[in-house]
Design brief:
Number of strands: 12
Shape: globular
Strand order of the largest sheet: 3-4-5-6-7-10-11-12
Strand content: 5-15%
Radius of gyration: 20 Å
Largest sheet: 8 strands, parallel, barrel
Low-confidence stretches: 1-7
Number of helices: 16
Distance between the termini: 33 Å
Length: about 400
């Protein structure tokens, strides 16, 4: 699995200069410290935390405080915040700055999950222009010298697009970069991302970097996105599930010399098994609990071994192992010299879902401003816990 080298490209987000124009997309239950460290061991870029709820952060919820912790090896440190109340978002940003929890903050305006959008959060929020503007402006002011960025979707559905207006507002507010997942909330992760929307946003937003997200399954896809859309960098989510070494491929294809550690990957089954074992080990360290770490790695089994000659019984055993020793014994039974299976291991990873009508608060689309009913829904949205 080698990737042709492209001209060196770097990315600056405020004062942060990255060796490769690559960002790990926040994914609930995935992009914890363990996974971020693993990806960083292979490549270069900006590795963002799971989504952190601003109210839970301000209230110092125990789970939330654990999720914002970074390992000493993580530089720069990046946290994504989710919130719908301008004052709470501002307070959360001030807390991160004052207590030195991060070097970069991202705001989530792209989550399509119904439990978020039905309360006016995530991809639903930019529809309310004044609210969106207030959140971004207050967050940027609170961040001070810390670069603050946003990630968003095209809009709610094809009839309610928000990304160009939101991009102009965010640029005017002083964000350090803008990332666009080129789907609407109604599309969830189905079909194909509309890369032409990234092109339009890049043409609209001219003073800060624009990053593209959606359907990057390989380094070749990233090169093609940047060439076709003119975007300044890429955000990678589902494409790295079970393939943390994708960041090495990306660094070799897009980054400065030396941005990737090691040689291009020969992804034999033995290589994949070692990556899986390292991931499990880091999860045990993160949770400070071997049983919990081994339970958490279970969700990754199908992603790591997609296309490889690993039978259902062995996969099921990996998905029930409760110690690292058990995992070691199971991995030792594999045909570790089995070669990379090619196309069978490529392509889409993770759940795509299907297009659906977005879940929204009653009357949400009736106006671009906040009414009483919408205000109550937004108040409920602040009750969510971090990480989802």
């Amino acid at each position: 699995m080698t990737t042709a080298l492209a001209p060196t490209r770097s990315l600056r987000i405020g004062p942060i200069e990255l060796d490769a124009p690559v960002v790990l997309a926040p994914m609930a239950g995935i992009t914890n410290t363990a996974f971020r460290r693993l990806c960083r061991e292979y490549g270069a870029g900006l590795y963002v935390s799971e989504m952190i709820t601003t109210r839970a952060l301000v209230e110092r919820n125990d789970t939330t405080m654990r999720l914002i912790r970074h390992h000493e090896s993580e530089t720069p440190r990046s946290i994504q915040l989710y919130g719908v109340d301008p004052a709470t978002v501002e307070a959360a940003v001030r807390m991160i700055v004052a207590e030195d929890h991060a070097d970069h903050i991202d705001l989530n305006f792209g989550c399509p999950v119904p439990k978020v959008t039905r309360r006016g959060g995530g991809a639903a929020l930019p529809w309310k222009l004044t609210l969106f503007r207030q959140i971004v402006e207050r967050a940027v002011r609170a961040a001070g010298d810390l670069p603050l960025t946003i990630k968003m979707r095209k809009g709610i559905d094809a009839d309610h697009l928000t990304y160009l207006e939101a991009g102009r507002i965010a640029e005017g507010a002083g964000v350090a970069s803008i990332a666009l997942h080129a789907r609407t909330a109604s599309e969830f992760y189905s079909g194909h991302a509309d890369w032409s929307a990234i092109t339009k946003l890049k043409e609209t937003v001219t003073s800060v970097p624009v990053l593209g997200n959606g359907d990057i399954w390989s380094a070749g896809d990233a090169v093609r996105m940047m060439d076709e859309t003119g975007c300044d960098g890429v955000v990678v989510g589902r494409g790295c599930l079970g393939r943390p070494w994708l960041f090495g491929d990306l660094a070799r294809a897009l980054g400065r010399p030396g941005a990737a550690t090691g040689e291009p990957v020969d992804a034999t089954l033995g290589f994949v098994a070692r990556a899986f074992r390292r991931h499990a080990e880091l999860l045990v360290e993160f949770f400070e609990d071997e049983g919990r770490g081994c339970r958490d790695i279970r969700k990754h089994v199908a992603w790591y071994f997609k296309g490889y000659p690993v039978g259902g019984e062995l996969r099921a055993s990996l998905a029930t192992a409760s110690t690292l020793a058990e995992i070691d014994d199971l991995l030792a039974t594999m045909e570790l010299d089995a070669p990379y299976p090619g196309e069978a291991a490529e392509g889409q990873r993770g759940r795509a879902g299907s297009p659906k009508r977005p879940a929204l608060p009653d009357g949400w689309l009736d106006s671009r401003e906040i009414g009483d009913d919408a205000g109550r829904a937004l108040a409920d949205a602040e009750l969510h816990h971090s990480g989802g």
